[in-house]
Amino acid sequence: MPSLSRRDALRTIGLAGVASVAGCSSVDLGNGPNERPPDSLETSWSPSTDAWCFKYADLQNTARSPHEIQTPPTIKWQDRITDPPSASLISGELVAATPGQVITAGRFDSELHLRAYSAIDGKHRWNRRIQHQPGRRIPRFGGLVDGSLYMTDGGTDVIAVNVADGTIRWRRNLYDRVADAVPEKFLSPSNSAVDFSPIPVATPETVYIQSSYGLHGLEPGDGSERWRLYLGDRIDQAALEDPYGLAVTARRVWASYGGHVQALFTVRLSDGSLEIERTRLPLELPSRPVVTGDREAVLTHDIVWGTSPPETLAVGVAGEDVEWQFPGHAGEGAAAYSPLATDGDRVFVAASHEQQEQLVVFALQAATGKLEWLHRESFADRNVSVGAGGEFRLCQPAVTGGTLVVGYGTNPEQGTGHGEVVALSRAAGRVQWRSTLSIAPQDLMMTSDRLYVGGQQGTVVALADDGSG
């Protein structure tokens, strides 16, 4: 079976070579096919640390919260997305969690089902069905900001949902709007809307969009395009390929691309001069950039399971250079991988190989990629198998206070599966507590008082310290 990417579905991976470096260039703001350059690009805004409003917690994709569960937790409530008549659930995910509300999404063939729960007791608040075209990319979520949940339909549209009642505030076909001013060859490598692939990240001032054209800035109130920045003039084709993710900081915007591009673009607007650094990555399917410093970021590959383990597990980038590569401990046969999390000083990633049948968690120094500690535990007697490609997955890690929470599980075709989440001390990797669950953990989100675990099929479990409300 070929490798399975978080971003789409099945894909074969074949990484080759070592990172090469591309330089930094300052360009005239009028360059590019009908660019509308921004007056400002960065943001000083950051979300509340009491909530988990983005897929990976914040604009830098750190998957980090100052709060933690200190004792073996108890389950406060649990619920799952149910299949509507004549439809079959393809996948589910945890979208956002606040002290008052939790939102999940279930993906069906031509619909996305959003569901909101009370964070206190799990009671349903609202449901919303959003149509999307079958066969396109997976819809992407760009954060819960100022009462709106921003997302795409996986193809051309950017959508804002009112999280108070689930109504659609606006829906804009960004591809068609840009195509009115820009030739199609600059918008996607296939001259088709199918490959436009917008990815959103929202702030109160701007909804940032990454696409196969480059970067766009939308007005949060109505979705109108305020600016656009073309990045294709830095490659040998008119349009970019395979957008994988954005990060936004107070000084820069970061965007990773796969396919023939295989690069991380870092964009800064300073004193009216636009500076764009392009760093060639040794990753065919790169993850979202995880920002660890002013000019530093770490990436892994965007693969959840595969039969051909890649040579590089994580890459550290500083400016226009690949500073380090960490190979991991590759074994033979099938392997599963987690996304990244960081506490600023360390970067954490998990992997499991069929040959060893173990959970392996790596703690790497963010600046150098040096291994700081390693945690291993056997899957013996856990009733899971790494080789079960359609079922076994590793959970997204989360830094919660002084702990790192990781997880794994298996999800059969029928039922919610089973698995476990484990809390490790982030300084040394020692087990603090563990919790066995009747779901296959996929997503973790920490709020001020609860840890939410999202299952592969849209189930959500609310965990809290034993004895808490």
Give a quick rundown of the structure.
This protein has 469 residues and is mostly beta strands. The chain has one helix at 174-179; strands spanning 3-5, 10-11, 21-27, 64-65, 73-79, 91-97, 101-107, 111-118, 124-131, 141-145, 148-152, 157-162, 168-173, 199-202, 207-210, 214-218, 225-230, 243-248, 253-257, 263-270, 273-280, 290-291, 296-300, 303-306, 314-318, 321-326, 335-337, 341-342, 346-353, 358-365, 371-378, 392-394, 398-400, 403-410, 418-425, 431-437, 441-446, 451-455, 460-465.
Please name the defining characteristics of this protein:
1 helix, globular, Methylamine Dehydrogenase, Chain H, eight-stranded antiparallel beta sheet, 46% strand, mainly beta, six-stranded mixed beta sheet, 469 residues
Shape: globular
By CATH, the topology is Methylamine Dehydrogenase, Chain H
Count the beta strands: 39
The helix/strand class is mainly beta
Measured by DSSP, the beta-strand proportion falls in over 45%
**Most strands sheet:** 8 strands, antiparallel
- Write down the CATH class: Mainly Beta
Radius of gyration: 21 Å
Model regions low in confidence, pLDDT < 50 over at least 5 residues: 1-32
Ends distance = 45 Å
How many independent structural domains?
1
Helical residues, percent: under 10%
The CATH level-2 architecture is identified as: 7 Propeller
Number of helices: 1
| Average residue-wise pLDDT | 88
CATH H-level homologous superfamily name: YVTN repeat-like/Quinoprotein amine dehydrogenase
